């Protein structure tokens, strides 16, 4: 697998800071998922503390969200501040309970800034939340994949009319340039057309010597 962040081509550059985000989603039941995320900042070994052989952690925040499916409403939220620069940083953790009841889909980033931006929250935790939201949306498809694999009867999404097809892809619309609600992709889906297989499905099936069309049958989408 390709290294996530290859080193720069200029070997004379000195690293002075590292920030890492890690977000994972878990299937809990056909009605809910758990999304856990962490952010951690390091200073390189010896930079802040002379002769210190180990990198120095300066921030480490962990967030766990329980999210209902398919509504994508947050039903529980916990924040743990493992490493902070000041004791007073811990006072903000309970404020993040205000995430409960929010939709993590459209409008989430704006609402997070409104509730937790600036002096209303921890800047690192708030940045982590904004990184977690897209993972939750991506995991809707993974929830469906678990349902297919395990024979779980997940809530059906009507797709018979143009309006129903638009509603089914509401989490994608206007999230990026290719999913512009007035763009080509959205209109193809709304009209019942075929946008093709994901490139990563085609690549992996080809690598395995299998026909990518098998994936549609596997997902129950002939």
What labels describe this entry?
alpha+beta, 4-stranded antiparallel beta sheet, 222 residues
The count of strands amounts to 4
Which series of helices and strands comes N to C?
A: EEEEHHHHHH
Helix count, DSSP H or I runs of 4 or more residues: 6
How many structural domains does the protein architecture include? 2
Helix/strand-derived category reads alpha+beta
Relative strand content: 15-25%
pLDDT under 50 segments (min length 5)?
none
Shape: globular
Largest sheet: 4 strands, antiparallel
State the helical fraction: 25-40%
Radius of gyration (CA) equals 21 Å
Mean pLDDT: 90
- Kindly report how far apart the N and C termini lie: 31 Å
Question: If strands are numbered along the chain, what order do they take across the biggest sheet?
Answer: 1-2-3-4
């Amino acid at each position: 697998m390709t290294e996530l962040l290859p080193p720069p081509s200029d070997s004379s550059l000195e690293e002075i800071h590292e920030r890492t985000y890690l977000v994972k989603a878990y299937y809990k039941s056909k009605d809910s998922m758990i999304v856990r995320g962490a952010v951690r900042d390091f200073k390189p070994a010896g930079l802040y503390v002379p002769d210190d052989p180990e990198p120095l952690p300066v921030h480490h925040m962990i967030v766990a969200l329980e999210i209902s499916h398919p509504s994508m409403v947050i039903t529980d939220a916990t924040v743990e501040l493992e490493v902070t620069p000041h004791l007073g940083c811990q006072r903000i953790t309970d404020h993040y309970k205000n995430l409960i009841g929010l939709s993590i889909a459209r409008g989430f980033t704006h609402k997070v800034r409104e509730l937790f931006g600036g002096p209303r929250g921890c800047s690192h935790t708030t940045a982590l939340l904004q990184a977690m939201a897209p993972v939750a949306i991506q995991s809707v498809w993974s929830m469906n994949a678990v349902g297919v694999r395990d024979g779980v009867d997940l809530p059906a999404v009507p797709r018979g009319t143009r309006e129903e097809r638009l509603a089914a892809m509401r989490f994608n619309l206007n999230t990026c340039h290719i999913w512009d609600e007035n763009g080509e992709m959205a209109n193809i889906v709304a009209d019942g057309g075929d946008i093709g297989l994901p490139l990563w499905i085609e690549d992996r099936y080809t690598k395995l010597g299998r026909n990518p069309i098998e994936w549609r049958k596997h997902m129950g989408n002939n």
